Amino acid sequence: MGFHKECELFHEHLTEALGEMWTDNDDWHTVDWSQHAIRFIGRMSASVFVGPQLARDTKWQELIVTSTMNTFMGVRSLRAWPAFLRPVVHWFLPELKKCRQQMRLARLMLQPIFDRRIRGKATSSKSHKTEKFNDTIEWLEEIAAGRPYDAAAAQIAFAISAMHTTSELLKQALLDICTDPGLIPAIRDEVDKAVRESGWSTTGVFKMQLLDSAVKETLRLKPGSLVNLERKALRDVVLPNGMTIPCGTNIAVDSSMMWDPTIYPNPSAYDAYRFLRLRQSGNTGASLASASPEHIAFGIGKPICPGRFFASNEVKIALATIMLTYDVRIPEGFDPKVVEMGFEMLSDPVAKLESASDIQLPPARLGRGQGPFPPPLAVGHVPKDTSYDYGRKSLTKQAAVAAMLFIGYGLGNIVGPQFFLENQTLQYTTGIRSVEACMAFNTFFLLCLYAYYILENKRRDRELGPASGQTYEAVDDLTDVTDRQIPGFRYTL
Ligand code: HEM
Question: Is Transmembrane set as a keyword in this record (predicted)?
Fold first, then answer.
């Protein structure tokens, strides 16, 4: 799958999840950020790992969100036993029973997809048209090339490598961004411009460089772990400086260079612009997915995290989408804390946020069926520009205009979306043209109305003499008269 398609999928699935969980409530309300961040990443990752169908399945979402934690718990419970007993006790430990149960469920849920694809391939080979799938189910099939493998275990493994790390980063990144109120508008502007220019694509995501820097700064301050590159020496290793690491020793690289004041001035402060400045000064290691000896949150060298581009795009798209559609802030009195557990660094496990849907969405923020749809065919005009007080009287006119507006609005909302075609996702050329055409028609009809008012005023001056300045109050006893029956009435232009 090209990363372009991946970016679109991330955005599409997060938008759906936001609609379901954060809704379009435009009043400030508290959201369970700690839980929601995991669910958002689960949904976005699954759209690429197993395709849109399973990604939307709530049972699958539950499975991948909980499988990571269950596996960690399982490993922990097994470690309490001596190594020689583990091949036996694992059958009896409740945590590991749960893991096996989830594996069976994953197999059951994946099987219909395999069956459908096999049937689809058989049909398409007859018609010489091969249906292409772009997800890890398909990639694994291609790589396995007929060799047996456990597809369910592979998916759980994907979830374990991708879910916890990425959702931790998303969680902390948004909390950090919220601590600097000036940052949100700056990122929002950058994201808005990038999406307008390049859509939800890798190019668009590349252009979000302040956001990139902000997320990298979060990863510097709170990497997944206080140490990295954990290894076990399987034989005696002699280092170039002559030091020997005896066989069986567990070693790791301390992450503290990421907080070293000689490398990062004022290292404990969150400075969202830090890596942007470095990048602008030509430092090629300053982008989020790059690693350097001074920033090893994704590891370094040969075994560096292969999912770092995936994770970077995913977190940036999640933050960009949230920032374009919601206002977010940390609830008053809540001070999120990073928790250290062994080597692990966890963002606040009870982190809350307040969010409010931002209803003033520019077109770049909208996709088919999401957000408030601007009804292109429902443009109405209320003639308020007269010397007559339509606000209080003229009930027939008001009712007629309101009915026309209502019908126009309804029709616009039915007909308008039909112009936003699936195959034009993100460009929506026909949709945009239809909006432009409606605007042009609207302007034309307004000009006609304006010309009519001028001509009508002139006709009245000619036929009835100059306007008397008579106001509605002056003819209050004539409640039922129309403008035409009031000789002094003129349209205000
Ligand atoms: C913010 C998110 C992520 C962080 C901070 C992160 C970090 C890391 C780190 C530190 C390593 C170990 C490097 C080492 O010990 O040498 C690693 C390995 C790995 N990561 Fe990630 N990762 C993230 C997201 C992902 C995602 C989304 C995927 C999959 C799509 C992924 C797949 C892997 C795999 C397969 C390895 C093992 C590589 C190997 O052993 O050769 N990671 N990651």
Answer: yes
